[in-house]
Amino acid sequence: MARVRVRLGNWNRLNRKWEHRVSMMKTMVTQLLEKERIRTTLAKAKTLQRYVDKVVTLGKKGTRDAWIQARGIVRTDRELHKLFTQIALRYRERSGGFTRLVRAGWRERDAAPVAFIELVDRPGELRPAGPALQRVDPLSVRAWMQMQLGQTPREASPLLPTVVRQYLRDENRIRDRTNVPELGDG
């Protein structure tokens, strides 16, 4: 009988058997939650990043089921408690990207690429996190562009479909609401 090769997708195998790889990732997740920055090889750090993002998402959920799932990954009760209290509160507004990889050169003995992996938005981080991106309403952008071009608000014709008339009303309302200074104003 032929052996069937199981595809793992994009998960890096790290030249280890499945049991060793999973055990190593669980230990590294626990260490990262404890110390909030660890130094490891680049391949391990990239794989660890995916695990940590999933665990932090479980911590943000805060449900009993999420606690049980996270308990299967995080090895110590102290880090599990920290995940569901401190870390969940720190990242309550952030929707993803809880970790940062910073390349740190090569290891001396085997020249393997080394990187720091750290949790973002914490004191003492290697590189400060950028501000969270704000979602921009496309109607406000269009109204601002029309105001810059000097165009007048479009009036909704009664012959237009209801959806288009509502869109034009919203666009005019947003333009009236926004007081955007001219580009030449300082």
From TrEMBL:
Record InterPro entries: Ribosomal_bL17 (IPR000456), Ribosomal_bL17_CS (IPR047859), Ribosomal_bL17_sf (IPR036373)
Protein name in UniProt: Mitochondrial ribosomal protein L17
Keywords: Ribonucleoprotein, Ribosomal protein
Family: Belongs to the bacterial ribosomal protein bL17 family.
Oxidoreductase listed as a keyword: no
Pfam families assigned to the protein according to its UniProt record, in alphabetical order: Ribosomal_L17
Residues passing through the membrane, by range: none
Gene3D superfamilies to which the protein is assigned, alphabetical: Ribosomal protein L17
Top-level taxon: Eukaryota
PANTHER family: LARGE RIBOSOMAL SUBUNIT PROTEIN BL17M, RIBOSOMAL PROTEIN L17
Record has Transferase as a keyword: no
